[in-house]
Design a protein that fits this description.
The structure is a single chain. By secondary structure, this protein is of the alpha/beta class. The chain has 3 domains: 166 residues, NAD(P)-binding Rossmann-like Domain (Rossmann fold, 3-Layer(aba) Sandwich); 168 residues, Dihydrodipicolinate Reductase, domain 2 (2-Layer Sandwich); 82 residues, ACT domain (Alpha-Beta Plaits, 2-Layer Sandwich), CATH 3.30.70. Helix content is 34%, strand content 26%. The chain contains 13 helices and 16 strands. Strands 3-2-1-4-5-6 form a 6-stranded parallel sheet, sandwiched between helices. A 5-stranded antiparallel sheet has the order 9-8-7-10-11. A hairpin with a 2-residue loop joins strand 13 and strand 14. The longest helix has 23 residues. The two termini are 41 Å apart. It binds NADP nicotinamide-adenine-dinucleotide phosphate and L-homoserine. The site of L-homoserine (HSE) has 11 residues, from helix 6.
Length: 438
Amino acid sequence: MGKKIGVGLLGLGTVGAGVANIIQSPEGRHPLVAGIELVRVAVRDLNRPRNTSVPSNLLTQNPQEVVDDPSVEIVVEVMGGIEPARELILRAIASGKSVVTANKAVIARHGKEIALAANASDVYVLIEAAVGGGIPIIEPLKQSLGGNRIQKVSGIINGTTNYILSRIAKEGVTYQEVLKDAQKLGYAESDPAADVEGFDAADKIAILSGLAFGGAIKREKIPTQGITKLNNLDIDYANKLGYRIKLLAVAERLNQGTESISSLPLAVWVQPTLIPEAHPLAEVNGVNNAILVEGDPIGEVMFYGPGAGAGPTASAVVADILNIAGVRVIKDQSNCLDPLLAANSWRSCHLVENSKMIQKHYLRLRTKNSPGVIGQIGKVFGDHNVSIQSIIQFDASEAGAEIVVITHEVEKGQITSSLNKINALEEVNGLLAQMVCL
Ligand code: NAP
Ligand code: HSE
């Protein structure tokens, strides 16, 4: 990459600081990260302590300065809210700058206006961080699943409420008590009503629906119910009946046959929902999100991971910055492949020796049923510095016994040398099974 690509940040809060931290420590990441430079950053309060060490001369209280700075090529909007975020995004687009935003509230309401402006100015507006935090879901819907006819997108897409519901289910606390923790952890929106009333999930399902079904829907028409009216008793009763209660967001096409190109009927909603405990969404806990996409011909795929927080969200923002940087590389160096799509390797990697591999082991031994066998086996492991998580004897009879050992994590070489010694013990008749244990 020739000249570094200048990034201007609108916001240096939870997400903005996470993005700055990645850009400022490119070692070990994709080489395009080293080609990005943070050149200007807008904040509200110049004196607020921050979780990042951005030089103070980059900070300004005037976000327009960031957008208008000629050294800023990509504007990253992570300030939140509708205005002035929308206005600043449109201003960046109008001056020929690509935009990355994590702002689902703006995209769910003004996505069409922004997309039309971006197309007219030949720039990109990328929104991976707007849904699912660190989970790649926007790009899969736009690209990887493009050959499918999507039937349904559903899932848990608000980290704050999932964190709250998981803790209520486990600890029986009230939602107000846990909401404070979600705020401290940087999961909640500045107005947490957006999370607990389900509005944030509605913004996100509106965005996913637009991508999955190819047309924007009216955000304000999505029936939305949050978790504020949920009673702990219902969570408890649902558990007893074999269900988990989750704030579910769903967008589903209603006609399975020939579709009308002009208008596709969709059922889109957000609501607390009882999910059978065997369902893949039932054990999605804490700040994690999970999104199920059903398509023809792929069937069902699930995207799972941390749905909020500085690091995961910044990971998604930086992915978008790299996509735009990749396009710049192609423009700068004619005849070159997109550095993100091309098969490439940028450093030499080598495999660790088999004996140095660190794993937990499951071992099943056939032994004589005599006193002290477990002690002898335990001593050999101890002599080789192998720590044992559990050791149990099964099926003891006159004919012998089976001893199952689960170790803590050790180098494979320690297990091999322990087993050589154990196999040589008079009381041991052989190793019947050996597997890795997670
Ligand atoms: P945040 O911690 O409240 O940070 C907002 C930042 O924007 C702060 O640095 C604030 O400045 C600055 N800011 C706000 N209004 C401004 C203005 N008018 N002029 C200049 N600076 C302004 O918010 P966040 O959690 O990082 O969220 C940012 C965006 O990402 C939101 O759209 C949110 O929905 C989205 N998002 C958040 C997460 C998450 O886990 N937090 C995940 C996905 C998406 P000060 O610091 O000086 O107050
Ligand atoms: N407040 C949002 C959530 C942030 O809790 O999911 C991530 O979009």
